Amino acid sequence: MRLARFSYNDSVGYAVLDGETLKVLDGHPIGELAYTGVEIKLSDARLLAPIIPSKIICIGKNYLEHALEMGTPAPKEPLFFFKPTTAIIGPGDPIRIPSQSDDIQHESELAVVISRLCKDVPVERVKDVILGYTCANDVTARDLQQKDGQWARSKGFDTFCPLGPWIETEIADIQNVDIECRLNGKVTQKDSTASMIHSVATAVSWVSQHLTLLPGDVILTGSPAGISRMNPGDIVEVEIEGIGILSNPVVKDV
Ligand code: MG
């Protein structure tokens, strides 16, 4: 099932996307779904970031080749950091390059959306707290990341967390899906979630041992190798098998 968030005329809502039809939900898509009976053609609506979480947690260096391209060993335990929710944008929204950086790079990542309040989730029960999956771009000001020594600024600018196009709730084996990033149509990142150092279940469990997860929270699971610089005028696409394509233009902030 695809869960989408959309705007239509002056209203914003959640819907189940069935083919090209948005079946509008009463309230939010967490827990028991209630349909309003209203249906909207996808082409008449605008898709938004599919969820507004209380927090975005990102796993760093979770693909060995990416850790190596960063010039660092892979962390033995899942390494995580936060992005502010104000960084979230939806499909088609522009990534704005801030004046403070000369090196903005993409990181295509599988994002996990949490379904319920939880803490200390055992690995084998993580599937019970996952609502579904979407595509994410952990946009990073690489020069500021290296300069600052910690990542709050370099990962936290407005527009630095594109999410979408929707949440897919049914994926048979999340550790065996292809993930790809394209910059202006050219493939820059290509790997499989099978290459993750720490699996989705391990990463979610690990995070939940440190802090309470709330319904809708988003966990980015790390980027494959091939991070590349983006420039104004570029189009960046994150495609994940079984989910879809998240496409965003890149513009200079003014
Ligand atoms: Mg990342």
Write the layout of secondary structure elements.
Layout: E1 2-8, E2 11-18, E3 21-25, E4 35-41, E5 46-48, E6 56-60, H1 64-69, E7 79-83, E8 88-89, E9 95-97, E10 104-105, E11 108-114, E12 130-137, E13 140-141, H2 142-148, H3 152-156, E14 161-168, E15 178-183, E16 186-192, H4 200-208, E17 218-220, E18 229-230, E19 235-240, E20 244-252
Parallel strand pairs: 6-17, 8-14, 9-20
Antiparallel strand pairs: 1-2, 1-5, 1-14, 2-3, 3-4, 6-7, 10-13, 10-18, 11-12, 11-17, 12-14, 15-16, 15-19, 19-20
The chain binds magnesium ion (MG).
The site of magnesium ion has 7 residues, from strand 6.
Keywords:
Fumarylacetoacetate hydrolase, domain 2, 2 domains, SH3 type barrels, 11% helix, twelve-stranded mixed beta sheet, binds magnesium ion, five-stranded mixed beta sheet, 254 residues
Protein described:
This protein has 254 residues and is mostly beta strands. The protein folds into two domains: 2-47, FAH (SH3 type barrels); 56-252, Fumarylacetoacetase-like, C-terminal domain (Fumarylacetoacetate hydrolase, domain 2). 11% of the residues lie in helices and 41% in strands. It contains four helices and 20 strands. It has helices at 64-69, 142-148, 152-156, 200-208; strands at 2-8, 11-18, 21-25, 35-41, 46-48, 56-60, 79-83, 88-89, 95-97, 104-105, 108-114, 130-137, 140-141, 161-168, 178-183, 186-192, 218-220, 229-230, 235-240, 244-252. Strands 1, 2, 3, 4, 5, 6, 7, 8, 11, 12, 14 and 17 form a twelve-stranded mixed β-sheet that branches. Strand 19 (235-240) and strand 20 (244-252) form a beta hairpin. The longest helix is centred in the C-terminal third of the chain and has 9 residues, at 200-208. Bound molecules: magnesium ion. Residues 58, 60, 107, 109, 138, 222-223 line the site of magnesium ion. Magnesium ion binds next to strand 6.
